[in-house]
Amino acid sequence: MKYLTIDTTTKVTAVALAEDGKLIGEGFLHTTKTHSERIIPMLEQLITAAAWTLQELDMIGVVCGPGSFTGIRIGIATAQGLAQVLNIPLISVVSLDALAWAGKERMEDVVPILDARKNEWYTARYHWMPGMEKPECLTMPQAMSTGQWLEYLWGLDRSICFVGDAAVKAKKRIEEVLGERAVILPEYISLPRGAYAVRAVWQKWQETGRGEQVEPYYIRFSEAEVNWAKKEKARRSSGNE
Predict the structure, then answer these.
(1) 59-63 vs 22-29, strand pairing mode
(2) Is residue 37 located within the same domain as residue 105?
């Protein structure tokens, strides 16, 4: 089964081609250009380099969040459009689940952290048991303040392997709290990669064997939604129904 994966949940645009869970090729761009400017040219170049055609694809996988609200929408819209035109199944995976593959076979708990702004991270906690085909999720995906999350991890008294776009940026702070129990993987491993999405999508396909109606997974409301809710509440309170 040949398939494409798309991940635009962070500033990285990650596109990959795979067959039966095996990575065929991947594109990775971390530049100032927007996802909408990068994603189609990257896909075209990757398809050409692999000597594939879009018509050969049997499935499309997309990372549905959490992460950048705009990035999530662009990735899902692109994946949905392609799946509809090609009449093939679409499947989604969570960004934190995909990033957990960066720590495959490590002995420590694997903790992806993505910048959620407002001094918060999108995060979760996983553990790879020997011989397992996917990580066990020990703490479900959530948005949490950086200080509260680090305090929680410190209380576990376990070694933690950090991945994600916030891992390298927060390296000093993490090490101040967890000391030698913190393992922070280098950026070229920590950032979202097509290879991680390929594995996460294939694992889910093996479990479900079918496509799905994909929706963005935001975890929390966007700034625009929060502001709208505040204005709506103020309007109702003033009696101007």
Answers:
(1) unpaired
(2) no
